[in-house]
Structures are given as C-alpha cells and as structure tokens.
Amino acid sequence: MTRHHPDSLTLMEYSAGNLSEPHALCIRLHLDKCPHCRSRVDTLDSLGAVMMEEQPKVSVSESMFDSILSRIDSEPASEPVQPAPPRMSALQKLLGENLNELPWKRQLGDVSVLDISEKFPGQSEQVVLQKLAAGGKAPAHTHRGNETTIVLQGAFADQNGVFNQWDFVVLNEQDEHKPVAVGCEDCITLSVLSAPVKLTGRFTRLLNPFIR
After folding, report:
1. Could you read off the pLDDT of 69-79 as tens digits, one per residue?
2. How far is C-alpha 100 from the chain's CA centre?
3. Which of 65, 66, 2, 69 lies closest to 30, judged by CA?
4. Per-residue exposure over 175-201, b if at least 16 CB sit within 10 Å of its own CB, e if not
5. 2 in a domain, yes or no?
6. Residue limits of the ChrR-like cupin domain (predicted)?
7. Residue 187 shares a structural domain with residue 96
8. Are the CB atoms for 123 and 117 separated by under 8 Å?
9. Band of residue 209 on the pLDDT scale cut at 50, 70, 90
10. Which of 67-71, 91-95, 108-112, 162-166 bottoms out in mean pLDDT, i.e. has the lowest?
11. What is the CATH number of the domain that holds 99?
12. Are 176 and 140 in contact (CB under 8 A)?
C-alpha cells in the first residue's frame, strides 16, 4: 500500500502533459499501483476535457486555480478503485524484467547506481537507478537541486518515515537525509535529479568534487 503520493500540483502538471519524460515516468509508475492518485488524475483529465470544449479564450484566474487544487485535496475517499489490469509496465519496457540483473556500478559502501539518462535524449535532468543493499545505509547527503524519487523495490527509512514500494518522494536543497534500507531485500529507487547530490558526512564530503 502506497503512503506517500505526488501533490495535487504535480498531478495537475502530469494531466496537462507539462512534465518532462522522466518525471512523467515516475508518475505513471506510481499511478499503476495507486488507485487513489489514479482517481485524482481521472478527475483532472475530465476537468481538462470540459475546459477544452469551452469556446475560445477561457480565462482561468489564480483564485480558480487555487480552488481546483483545494477541491482535489479535500475530495472524500471514493469507492475502492480496482487495480490497473496487468500489463508490461513502462519500466519493464525500458529496462527489462529483472532490476537486480542490471549492470549496477558500486558507488559508495552499500550503494550501487546505474545512470540511465541516455534513455531520455534531450532531457536536462539526470535519471539514475540506485540500489541500497538490504540493511545498508546511504551516506548522509543533501541536494543541490530537486530530486524526484519513486521506490521500485523494497523500502527505505529516513527521518521523514518509511517509504515502501511505489511510494513517491520529492526532496530539495532544504532536505538532508541518510536513507537506510529496511526489510529483507535490496531497496531500488528511480530518481530524477536537476543537480547532483551533496555529501554531508564528515569524510564523504571530500568526495563532492568527484560527483557528477
């Protein structure tokens, strides 16, 4: 069960087709497993269709925009939505069936990475898979920009709580954390970064000049 979701503004940007391809992929993966967010996007899609049907130059005031966001956030839980029908996910099409068999590169301690930015030509963000060994700890770090992450396998914990499979996380320059993999399997995440992370540990910060 997913506990951490994209905010309403992000879902609105997704519905409008305004997100970059890597960010949209993170949203699609979450929606495939989260009936709650899928229902919210369906509402946004319906609203967008109605607005498109209006005749030219429909103006949307800032107050109307805020009202839409508030309405989506305050919607009562709807009747249970059936899970999406089984199909090959966007991730499987991109990377294959088994994430554990990818050509991982050991980075620091318990962390391995695989940069897949080249699969998104023309995008400015770095797109990277990260694997944290079961029970392992990632180095303490903050961010030089925004980082959007979705958990693909396993779970990790930090000072903000526990993030399970298909949970959605957004971090920025104000966030500093030290993720720990919880459970019996490696934690694998997909992250989209606008800038490299910044290590903050007493010794690991010496490696910052080498991080790209």
Report:
1. 666 666 554 44
2. 19
3. 2
4. bebebbbbbeebbbbbbbbeebbebee
5. no
6. 100-190
7. yes
8. yes
9. very low
10. 67-71
11. 2.60.120.10
12. yes
Query: How many separate domains does the chain show?
Result: 2
Do 8 and 65 contact (CB within 8 A), yes or no? no
Contact 198, 144 (CB under 8 A): yes
Q: At 146, list the tokens.
A: 């925004």
The three-class DSSP label of residue 186 is: coil
Confidence of residue 59 (pLDDT cuts 50, 70, 90): low
Helix (H, G, I), strand (E, B) or coil at 28: helix
By residue range, what is the domain housing residue 26?
8-74
pLDDT tens track for 8-40: 999 999 999 999 999 999 999 999 999 999 999
Q: Among residues 74, 98, 113, which one ends one of the domains?
A: 74
Cα(94)–Cα(149) distance, integer angstroms: 17
With CA atoms as reference, report the closest residue to 128 among 197, 186, 179, 174.
197
CATH of the domain at 63: 1.10.10.1320
- The residue among 36, 41, 38, 27 whose CA lies nearest residue 190 is 27
